[in-house]
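ping. complex inputs:
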Amino acid sequence: MDLQREISQSVMISARVVARAMLLLLVILANLGMAERPPVDQGGRLQIVTSIPDLADFAARIGGDLVTVESLAKGLEDPHGVPIKPSFLPKLNQADVLIVMGLQHEHAWLTALIDVARNPMLLPGNPGYIDCSVNISPKQIPEVLSRREGDVHPLGNPHFNLDPVNAKLMAKTIAEGLARVYPAGKNRFQTNLKKFENRIDAQLVKWKKLAAPLQGLQFVSYHQDTIYFADRFGLRESGHIEIRPGIEPTQRHLVQLVERMKRENIQLVLREPYFSDKLPNWIAQQTGARVAKFLIMVGGNPRVKTYEDLIEFNLHSLLDAVQSGKGQAKD
Amino acid sequence: MFMLGRQTDNPCQFPIWVLGFTVIHCVLMSGLALAERSWVPAVESQGNSGGEVEHDHVHDTHIVGQSSEMEEETEASSGNRGAIEERVPGAVVESDPKDLIPRTGGMPMNIPQGPKPQSERQQSGGTHPSRSSAIEERIPGAKATTETKDLLPRTGGMPMAVPPELDQPPDLREAAILRRQTLLNRFNPAIGLVFETIFGYTQRRQRFVGGDGADAGGDVGTRLPSNFSSALRTIELFASAEVDPFARAYLIASGHAEGINAQGSEEFGKAAFEIEEAAIQTTSLPYNLSIRGGRFFSDWGFLGRRHAHDLPQIDVPPSLAQIFGNGNRTDGIELSWLVPAPFYLLINTGTGFSFGLPGEGPLAGLRRQVIQGNVLFGSIRSYYDINDDNNIELGFSGLYTPQSRVPGASGDALLAVDSTDPIDRHVFNMDFHYRWYPLGRGLRRSFALHGEILYDFGQGRRDVFGNTVSRGAWGGYAYLEHRYSKRWRSGFRFDYHQLPSEPALVTNPLTGFAGTTVNTSGNRTDAMTFSPYITFYPSEFQRFILQYNHSNYGNTLASNNQVLFQWQVVIGSHQHGFTERD
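pong. complex structure:
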């Protein structure tokens, strides 16, 4: 009994000590954290947080030396399933601008974060919230809104970043959004935007030439994320390994898919980096098709550092798969 | 004419006279429009190259961009608005470009079936060149797949009388119509429902009676009969909406059927609804502060913040359940501060009346040592990314309640010591987490270790002899969870807790029969539960858990075995909040 009492007392005392130590720590931290950043006019920079790395690439090129940019998701991740990490909160809390894809691309994780980030500037509708889908014409808007259709995006397919023409529109939205937050930088943003657009225009001519052998090529992808890319470069999206967006395939679906691929002579399977290569390789084995790695975001491969790298990587990956004989996904 | 063509696409029925009226109206309006507008020049479909770009209307924006890069036109970067205003003399486009995207607020849209044949489109549209033909003409080899259905207004099958300002290119007109719709339901809260049924087998039905009369900890499965059973544990209704720029409010009401607990009574089979949370949360306080008031699950500890259906296992860990029942529910107010540090640090403090959620359904329906009385609580929580794949999280929580009572702490105890005396209680909690969540594969392969350690200290408890004593009880749990595909995970939970009071009856040391001998030694006892489980997610919105519990109760009760199976679905709006993260 006495031992019990002693334990109880010592726990109570140590709890008090811990509480005091924490209070002290807090006071110190609060003083550190509250230190104001210099405004942009006086050498400071706009703090931009983006949901995916593509947007960070655009924002960095448009913002130039007026901004610092950080992407929450990394290029390798499933953009719909980024883990809700508490370490994202300080970044969102201290950011001036949040750039998102929109069309509910990030709804599974970012919404929960901005809800608790204590930064009203970044809430949808406020100037600090830049939604890159506003100038895009969405594709694959679902005709039926039901969960029977899987994890559908009610406003349309949100993987529009894979069309370089859309990239220009997204960059334009970003330039306008940044000017809204920092009007004095408007001309700089516009100049940089023009530069970016010209660059993409020049590249697009090159890419189109590069993609010529891919014209009309039918393919199957794991997730429903290729339509914008396929439409731009003349490929035909003809099926998915997932039974519905976000829902893993059943055995029956795979058998049907293999049958259909054989029947329609579909010779290419695209694998996004965040999916296991088990099923794509199995399908390739069954059908004699080839597997090509297909990145959906900048950073999906260590070599892919800019948006141009992304498009080029994908085109080369497809070309390699089509031109070299049978093959597994190359990294 | 344009309208007429579209209406034939709508499968909905409506009275003939409405059709007649609408046809006349639309013909008139279209006629007027054709007479007035010069911005809709007819574009013949043969052999146009870039020259026709100027006549394109708004939704061809990206085409404009593209043709420019092909043909170096100066119009290259002009956006929707600019493009229209340039090409439409006198037209002022007021709409924000974002309005071009139909926002239905989650409502199903009545979309006409499929694209119309080219000929019909040209016939009905007349002056509007089809977008896809334009694309295909200008970009050799390009295949335009944009479907006409995206361009059509969505009226839910109702005929439309089009005011003049709506007679615009389809995208803008659609946006204008959407803006003008009567939006009585648009501000309704987002609503979601959770259905959860538990099937169980329990080897023994037995209960533990504490010396102070509380049913402390004797609940592991005892509310299920000593054989097979099934129970509707939860129907949860969730509704939430923004109040104004400063606050958000939400409701979580939970229904459960009176099963085993009510056997033999008139209540049996009836469902009861209970408000689990009904709270207001501020959204724009300065200094990183946020206040929550009402009835809510306090941000205290780890699994106590979650609703029963949302737990990683089927039941609440017994050590936690013993103190707080089914969650940290409190009626009060809570202030939290996200410390403006470069890393995550959250401090939370609050006060309320009562802490814990007693009795809900057959699984957790025992009287716990749930706190009834004024309570002060607080917690501090931090998180650290070791690298992209590994992270750790640590939280400390504490609460103090002076003179609180243990509900129902009298009556059915065998040695009915009068224990309605108030108790001063302190509860301390530490929770720790390690997660391995490999970048890019985390949805398919991950590993996590979570745990909580609790110390519940009470002044004013009674021992088995009726003496007032001060004493604490330790408890805690830890579980490992391994995910090896998007659908499957398995885990193992170990739980240990001391009971805060002595058992009234203990195992007879001579016969070995549990709960047959009066506890004259005053020895306390402890309980251990081992719980392997396996979880299957057919999709994000449905899950099955199969769980086995093996419990040892020291010198008090016979050890028990239990198999539980949970089937749970979620419909409607269901957003995983920050506290429900894996």
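The first strand of chain A starts at residue 46 and ends at 50.
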